[in-house]
Amino acid sequence: MADKPEIRVILAAPRGFCAGVRRAIDAVRDALAKHGAPVFVRRAIVHNLEVVRSLEAEGAIFVEELDEIPPGAVVVFSAHGVAPAIAADARRRDLTAYDAVCPLVAKVHREVERHQRHGRQIILIGHKGHPEIEGTLGHVSSVGAHVVNSLQEVAALPVGRDEPAAYAVQTTYSVDDAHAIVEALRERFADLEGPASSDICYATTNRQAAVREVAIRSDAIIVVGEHFSSNACRLAEVAGAHCGEVQLVAGPDDIDWECLPASGVIGITAAASTPESSVQAILSALAGRYRISVEQTGSEKETTVFKRMALA
């Protein structure tokens, strides 16, 4: 032990699973308990491979599209939400379909549908191609819908200044980036409506605030999550604004040990789709190379709990 360098580890709190992720994972397990294996899941239920592999071991089969599922089978839609056309296609295929959409994403769907009824152009602040954005776009059919991810894209919007417009925000988007884009939209449009409360979910907001606090005090940050997870990538971006060394890793095998300091402080956080077991695996790997002392910082207690998905 004396030969190992000493390092202090600060764990960000809150971190890891949010209520929507827990609900989605429970939805697959509940469907398996009710119907037996296999239960099909359209796309990754949440953006984490450890979670996906765990559910596969329990009898879930993940597919990209509904045409990969045999008629009469059971399918669960992911937490990111789907377009109404997907649900209609499931009915046409005689599938028993359960929607594990996060309630906070469903709230965004209701918002854009309301703005559509009022004839407003819809502007979605988010990442083109992300499943949440694709699902939300599917709820817009009678007005124009536009996705923006930068101030330049706001300026280039093909919508007149005096046209009625409304915006919604991807629930896992950067809090700071969303604020800047909303301000630009307010300058751009004379008649603009937005949500009564932020679309960015409580878990995204809390985790970004927590990692910001930890990054200020750290020599390096490890964000535990997948590179294809939006909320993990945003955590890495927020940390990078305050710390010069940030790694986004799914597990210990992904750590670039050469880039970690020989002493000082390493901060750790985890995306909302990352199980705590992944964080513990990182800590075990660090303990194999360092003498570590671990503390947890942050006081934001999350009490949000969503009802389990109803199984008809």
UniProtKB/TrEMBL annotation:
* Residues annotated as binding [4Fe-4S] cluster: C18, C102, C201
Quote the EC number. Answer: 1.17.7.4
- A GO term, aspect molecular function: 4-hydroxy-3-methylbut-2-enyl diphosphate reductase activity
Per the record, the pathway is: Isoprenoid biosynthesis; dimethylallyl diphosphate biosynthesis; dimethylallyl diphosphate from (2E)-4-hydroxy-3-methylbutenyl diphosphate: step 1/1; Isoprenoid biosynthesis; isopentenyl diphosphate biosynthesis via DXP pathway; isopentenyl diphosphate from 1-deoxy-D-xylulose 5-phosphate: step 6/6
Pfam hit, one: LYTB
Q: How is the cofactor bound?
A: Binds 1 [4Fe-4S] cluster per subunit.
**What are the record keywords, sorted?**
4Fe-4S, Iron, Iron-sulfur, Isoprene biosynthesis, Metal-binding, Oxidoreductase
So where does isopentenyl diphosphate get bound? H47, H80, H130, S229, S230, N231, S273
Instruction: List residues binding (2E)-4-hydroxy-3-methylbut-2-enyl diphosphate.
Output: H47, H80, H130, T171, S229, S230, N231, S273
Q: Which residues bind dimethylallyl diphosphate?
A: H47, H80, H130, S229, S230, N231, S273
Q: Where is the signal peptide?
A: none
Q: Spell out the InterPro entries in the cross-references.
A: LytB/IspH
Swiss-Prot/TrEMBL catalytic activity: isopentenyl diphosphate + 2 oxidized [2Fe-2S]-[ferredoxin] + H2O = (2E)-4-hydroxy-3-methylbut-2-enyl diphosphate + 2 reduced [2Fe-2S]-[ferredoxin] + 2 H(+); dimethylallyl diphosphate + 2 oxidized [2Fe-2S]-[ferredoxin] + H2O = (2E)-4-hydroxy-3-methylbut-2-enyl diphosphate + 2 reduced [2Fe-2S]-[ferredoxin] + 2 H(+)
Q: What does UniProt list as catalytic?
A: E132
Cofactor(s) for this UniProt protein? [4Fe-4S] cluster
Which HAMAP family does its entry note? IspH
- Identify its protein family: Belongs to the IspH family.
Note the PANTHER family from the entry.
Answer: 4-HYDROXY-3-METHYLBUT-2-ENYL DIPHOSPHATE REDUCTASE
Summarize the protein's role. Answer: Catalyzes the conversion of 1-hydroxy-2-methyl-2-(E)-butenyl 4-diphosphate (HMBPP) into a mixture of isopentenyl diphosphate (IPP) and dimethylallyl diphosphate (DMAPP). Acts in the terminal step of the DOXP/MEP pathway for isoprenoid precursor biosynthesis.
This chain belongs to the protein called 4-hydroxy-3-methylbut-2-enyl diphosphate reductase
Q: Which organism is it from?
A: Sphingomonas daechungensis
